[in-house]
Design goal:
The protein is α+β, with helices and mostly antiparallel strands and 382 residues long. Helix content is 15%, strand content 43%. The strands form four sheets. Strands 6-2-3-4-18-17-16-10-14 form a nine-stranded antiparallel beta sheet. The protein has a nine-stranded antiparallel beta sheet with strand order 15-11-12-13-27-26-25-19-23.
């Protein structure tokens, strides 16, 4: 193996892939990156057996080959190179990675046989989904943090992804709250889906977080391929017909909860309020939320204000009032203020509607004029 590559590109590839590696006492090979040089391309791969990332970068290859090297060590060495080191030459010698630059920098890193590195699955590419990467990144960001790791109910440890010919839907829940984001597409949009039927997957939260990290903000499309138990997210180069980044993840087995059955179709009490003012007051109330993070909202239908209250026996209390359009029954209801903030921060509208089913039923937050995002949260029982 012998190739030359721009230093900044090599750093980029290492940064994208090394996040999957970690200290693995059972399989030390998983702490490594697989470095492969082929005609015109360097490929760097990493996997933890549930999640894999592959990155390709343009390079000048003198000799093809492959070797695995410790990810952390390689990252530290390449990270130490200053920006003036424009190019770096990498070669394999006696099962070591030799790194040299034009500025007389030379380092050897002991490696391991590439044959010991786990095989990352490949995919048939006859059927695929193609979608705007930046828009998908924004949609996934709005739901990903709501999922919760659960050994008892592994399906809620992931994000539910649903695709048909006209729309995409992402859902996450931890059983106390739920976020749903819908993307809709016109026939003339760049969204493509050539599957014969609707597709639905549950993907681990960790994989979705890594996907969010690697999707570029330059407007490139993302392609999605599937197998029986795996899924591939592929980002191609803009000006070269070749992948730049592949993320491969296992799918979580099981059926996602039938959450649509518990989303209320109507409200007993409804308020419309300014999002930013509400967010500010909830944050202030949260200072006095106590160990339960409890903040109460009092609504009276003969008023044009709601009252936001919290108290802590050691710190004190907070009482605030906020202008609101009010419909329906009088109500006093309590929530975990952190859950409320999580939902508010993902709503883009300047005003929100907050719909209630009494003091114990699920409450729904939506942006006024935006039916693409729904956030459902359960109250704290009084």
């Amino acid at each position: 193996m012998n190739f030359t590559i721009l230093t900044k590109e090599f750093k980029k590839g290492i940064a994208i892939t090394e996040r999957v590696t970690g200290k693995n006492m059972t399989l030390p090979i998983l702490d490594n990156l697989l470095i492969e040089s082929s005609s015109n391309f360097l490929k760097i791969s990493a996997t933890d057996l549930e999640l894999g990332i592959e990155w390709w970068g343009l390079c000048k290859t003198q000799e093809e080959g492959k070797l695995t090297v410790p990810a952390k060590l390689l990252s530290q060495v390449i990270g130490s190179l200053v920006s003036s080191e424009e190019k770096v030459n990498i070669k394999e010698k006696n099962q070591s990675l030799v790194i040299e630059t034009e500025k007389k920098f030379k380092t050897n890193i002991k490696g391991f046989l590439a044959d010991d590195f786990p095989i990352i699955p490949s995919f048939q590419k006859d059927y695929y989904i193609e979608i705007d990467g930046r828009k998908m990144k924004e949609a996934l960001t709005s739901v990903v943090d709501v999922a919760s790791v659960s050994n008892i109910r592994p399906e809620i440890s992931g994000i539910s992804m649903y695709f048909n010919k006209e729309s995409v839907r992402f859902v996450a829940t931890d059983s106390f709250r739920l976020a749903e984001k819908t993307m809709r597409f016109s026939p003339n949009s760049e969204y493509k889906n050539n599957f014969d039927k609707e597709q639905e997957f549950i993907i681990p939260q960790k994989a979705i977080k890594e996907l969010i990290n690697i999707i570029p903000d330059d407007g490139r499309n993302l392609k999605i391929y599937t197998s029986e138990s795996q899924i591939l997210f592929e980002i191609n180069y803009d000006n070269v017909d070749h992948p730049e980044i592949n993320l491969i993840s296992r799918q979580i087995e099981g059926q996602y909860p039938a959450y649509q059955e518990i989303i209320p179709k109507s409200a007993k009490t409804k308020i419309v309020i300014n999002k930013d003012e509400f967010l500010k007051q909830i944050k202030t109330a949260g200072i006095f939320g106590g160990r339960a993070n409890e903040v109460s909202i009092k609504i009276e239908n003969n008023s044009d204000e709601i009252e936001i209250n919290s108290q802590d026996s050691e710190l004190g209390e907070s009482n605030q009032f906020l202008k609101a359009q009010i419909e329906g029954n009088n109500l006093k209801v309590s929530f975990n203020w952190k859950f409320i903030i999580d939902g508010l921060q993902q709503i883009k509208s300047s005003e929100i509607s907050f719909e209630f089913q009494g003091s114990e039923g699920p409450a729904i937050m939506r942006g006024v004029g935006d039916d693409t995002y729904l956030y459902m949260v359960m109250p704290i029982k009084l």
